[in-house]
Amino acid sequence: IVPRSENSSLLVNGIQYDGAISIYAKGSDIHVVNELSIEQFIASMLAKDFIYPLESEVMSAIAILARTSAYYHGKNNQSLWHIDAIEAGYVGSYLQTPRSLIDKVIKDTQGLILVYAKEGQNEPFPATWTEHSAGKTATFGAIFRKEALCPSISRPTPHALSDRQDSSWSFTISKEALAKKCGMHSVESVELFLDHESNKSYAIRLTGASEKKDLSFFALQKHLGKEALQSNDFTVEIEGEEIVFEGFGKGHGVGLCLYSASLLAEKGENALQMLTKFYPHTSLYNLTVKSPKNQ
Fold first, then answer.
1. What is the pLDDT of residue 295?
2. Among 36, 202, 210, 294, which is least packed, fewest CB within 10 Å?
3. Is the per-residue pLDDT at 293 higher than 60?
4. Residue 116: Cβ-neighbour burial (10 angstroms; 0-12, 13-18, 19+)
5. Interatomic CA distance for residues 268 and 270, integer angstroms
6. How far apart are CA 127 and CA 247, in angstroms?
7. What is the pLDDT of residue 292?
8. Across the strands, what pairs with 244?
9. Distance CA 146, CA 10 (A)
């Protein structure tokens, strides 16, 4: 289904989509695939994630990271689509606002991505950001537990470290409630799996009277809610029939620390300077500039 005009959009179950819609039958399932430009995709994603945009240079850095990650996923030719909408959190285009700050920074950074050189390859990678790293970022592979061609460097974040205590949080839940949320009969003990370089948790093991369950940080956060389990920089204590989570910061702790980036922007640093700090050994690449080979 292709709109006659670029200004048209489609509604699927009340959700607005730009671009073309394809419908595939695969086995007993029906797949609805929205084909749109990467620029439209990142505009929709950032409009959803940043209802109140940050400083212009910080948003420019985020736009470059979002585009980098989108191009990385676009190289996946194993299926009829590149990105799973539910996994990515893509909810259509209804939040896009023309002439907004997000619209401006996407146009200002159009075609700009980061690339990482390794073993002769110069490729985009799964780039991301976190709200508050609480003093140190973790590598993508350590937390997401996925193999990818990307920088494997944990970075200190002095600005976030100085604010670590002010970013503290605590969450208490009963053993019974935690077991119910995680689909277990009971929970008697809790064990964390840590990335020792950043001291952030990538998974948790819950042990009951007759069963064990391992959950990734993201799965546990989905069960408990992001407002409860705010970050993966936490400890767990069992106090009688209650389990107490205490932590610092906000988010998964990987990539650009937005708290730090905002302070750097206030000091006059631009998007490229911020990205260089958090993604060393990468280069800015302009996809709109054609070399003599492919011109």
1. 35
2. 294
3. no
4. buried
5. 6
6. 24
7. 46
8. 172, 237
9. 34
Nearest of 145, 159, 154, 172 to residue 246 by alpha carbon: 172
Tokens 């003990």 map to which residue? 189
Q: % helix / strand / coil in the chain, to the nearest 5?
A: 30, 30, 40
Helix (H, G, I), strand (E, B) or coil at 181: helix
Question: Which pTM does this prediction carry?
Answer: 0.91
Burial 250-279 (b: 16+ CB within 10 A, else e): bbbbbbbbbbbbebbbeeebebeebbbbbb
Is the dihedral angle over the CA atoms 127, 72, 38, 142 positive or is it negative?
negative
Question: d(Cα 25, Cα 100) in Å, to the nearest integer?
Answer: 38
Query: How far apart (Å, rounded) are the C-alpha atoms in residues 86 and 34?
Result: 13
Yes or no: say if 224 and 171 are a contact pair by the CB < 8 Å rule.
yes
At 218, which helix (H) or strand (E)? helix 217-224
Element (H, E) at 176: helix 175-181
Helix (H, G, I), strand (E, B) or coil at 129: strand
Locate 286 and state its tokens. 């302009």
